[in-house]
Amino acid sequence: MSLTSLLRWEAGPIGVSVRPRVAVAVLALVVTGFAGLIASVSLGTYAIPVGDVLGAVLGFGDGAADLIVHELRLPRALTALLVGAAFGLAGAVYQAVTRNSLASPDLIGIAAGSGAGAVAAILIGGVTSAGAGTFGAVPFGALAGALLTSAAIYLLAYRDGTITGYRFVLVGLAANGALIALTRWLLARADIDQASRAMVWLTGSLNGRGYEHVQWSGIALAVLMPLTLALARPYQLLQYDDDTARSLGIPLKHSRIALLVLATCLTALATSAAGPIAFIALGAPQIARRLAGTAGIPLMISALTGAVLLVLADLAARLVLAPTELPVGVLTGAVGAPYLLLLLARANRAGKGG
């Protein structure tokens, strides 16, 4: 059987077709994600055998293993999976709708706007970034900042009845710089304790994440992911040019705005739980497209790729300089910098700015 032929399952009037390569990619990502989750819970300064990890998860662990698994590592690893999936899905929508591989929320100001809103909530509201009973204010600050930023970028990039990916990215880069300056100004006006809490959050870290983060991220993702998948048809058609998409019968403007609003909410969800983490939203969609071998960016595989990337990055950040632990945002930023240079070089060779 060729990897390009279609597999089809039918149950009465309902049938599903999938390419074998896509099915293999999904299976490989699920297995890698599960293995990364187990490794993230098992490995560390105090190593726990895999059997004891599974026993603790199933409620049969001893005291020490049970405490480490449930209080420290399992909620952190689950948060990494959920946040990575949200970043991957958001990056896929932004890059597909704008038809520009540089249109990632961590580059065009959406994550920076979310971060500025969350920092304002931390500083003005006096809440902690680690979720000690007052975590609820951070997501709403992040969501407000992300939505305001996304609306401003869209309106500034909108011209002659449409937006282009190149203009959207340029306006986003300018917004990103302005919002970083705003965040620094907020930090400069804060007292040292508030600024320290906000700075830890701004580096992008999963340290100290608990089940309240898993619960919040899981509920938000359970709402936002189905809504995004429900718009799969306009999502696929928007990857063509405007005339083609319009001729195929989709309401271009409304579909684009709906998808961007959902992607903005996904970015706010991820940023509020772990801080602005670079590279995941930028790299996951392009890696997913190559894994699936599709012309367009696949939504679900992008989400799975983002989840796998972040859980493995967090594991590496804990182990690479052990016993010193790096914030995961530092590691992803170090990996993302050369990847961004590669994208820019390719865009320069293509002569279309991405």
UniProtKB/TrEMBL annotation:
Q: How does it sit in the membrane?
A: Multi-pass membrane protein
Any idea where this protein resides? Cell membrane
UniProt keyword annotation of Membrane present: yes
Species of origin: Streptomyces sp. R33
This protein's name: FecCD family ABC transporter permease
**TM region positions:** 21-40, 77-96, 108-128, 135-156, 168-187, 216-237, 257-284, 296-320, 326-345
Keyword tRNA-binding set for record: no
| Biological process (GO), any one | siderophore-iron import into cell
| InterPro entries with a match to the protein in the record | ABC_BtuC-like, ABC_transptr_permease_BtuC
- Alphabetized GO MF terms: transmembrane transporter activity
What UniProt keywords are attached to this protein's entry? Cell membrane, Membrane, Transmembrane, Transmembrane helix, Transport
Example of a GO cellular component annotation carried by this entry: plasma membrane
Identify the main location: membrane
What family is this? Belongs to the binding-protein-dependent transport system permease family. FecCD subfamily.
Taken from the record, one Pfam family name reads FecCD
